[in-house]
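[Q] Does anyone have a clean structure-token version of this?
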Amino acid sequence: MEPFQPQVLSQDEIRAMLTQVTEEEFAEAKTHSLVNLKRQILYEGQPGGAVVTDTAGNQYIDCTSQAWSLNIGYCHPDVMATVLEQMRHLTHVRYGYATIPRIKLLNRLPRLFPGELTKVVLNNQGGASGIEGAMKLAMINKPGATVFLTAYRGYHGCTLGTLAASHYMRGLQRFSGYGLDHFHKFPYPHCYRCPIGRELRTCGLACLELVEEVMLYGATAPIAGLIIEPMQGAGGQVPTPPGYLAGLKELCQRHGIFLIYDESQTAFGRCGAMSAAEYYGVAPDMMVLTKGLGGGFPVGALLARGDLKGFSAAEEHTTFSSSPVSFAAALAAIEVTLRLDLPGRARKLNERATARLRHMQEEHPLIGDVRGPGMFIGVELVEDQQTKVPSTERATALVELAAMLGVIFDVDMPEVIAGRPTFRNTIKIKPPLTITEEQLDQALDVFEQVLQQVEQFGPDELASVREQMMKEAAPR
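[A] Here you go.
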């Protein structure tokens, strides 16, 4: 007997439930949904690949990996087979119970990353849960310290706690995070838009002095930790410059502050290494992981130094955060990443893509900067290469036009200032690391084609794009 013969529903009912939908159903769903839904209904991903099909039969080369998560591609056959095998045995247990996938994942993760990150806690909610776990662990291990330093335009999640830690998206958020007095901000080292107007070749990483000033004079209570994305994702695809993280670690050690990396977007091959910690050769005290870890399934992790005290049962648990199915998926995704050498593949793809994009930059003044290692590429569009005025409307239009031609790109984190959208002008190129060279070339062909189109937009067309952006950003 097959393991999953339905007992109550028929096989046809199940198939219809999952493969058929009408326009009327979609229209009704939009009236019920508290969040906006995109116009495409995604239906089927190419197993292990970068192509996804919608219900209308349109195919897309996905250069977003669906929130930068599908590093090994859609529905990877090895992950699917592993999950199916696990579902024969268990799909859910209470948080405190051990399962075979949980044991193996707890043992596997510390072997993947530099430093002494030998303590692990797992969750099924992703980066925000991991960041809050890191904050709790820092406070446990530095009693009385309750303040955290976070970077300008950083993004660490959408819970009330992690919203407070993140960049405030004015004009779009109608409330602030909780505990704002527990967070103090410092300038992120954005070398294309240096916060102190220096040049990387001669600056001597002067931006580190700003961080120390916040440590010394900006906090209103003892500082527990400093949370940073080693390569900023939502804030504009911005890698920290060489030497910065080493200097930051030295500052944190000098002042007794835990250094916490948010590697939600960078780990598991995305940046051309298994982690940004490996890429830069600088290990933190704690590291938060998610996205690429699960191979398309919801899972997150916090890794911490082995000498740190852990949690009590009351301090860290959620109902579904011991999912044997997600942990099994993560085990398979890790092995696929390593055996296919996807970090190495990301480096090779980066060389191909970056060479092409830099050539475009020479011919198209709309491209202000091309940055990022591996398949963690950002292309910043500007109205003028000297003034670097953000080309927000053209970037948004580029994404929309590319989707019509079968390629999914996205842009960085939005905000609205004085009633106008701004600084959402960096195109993200972050496909599955399994994308073929031909697909990558095709995506870049489309990128250049629509780049040429949006370059020609006049004031009326830009105003129309701006109006549509504000309409989509408006509260429901």
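[Q] Thanks! Anything notable?
[A] DSSP finds 15 helices and 19 strands in the chain.
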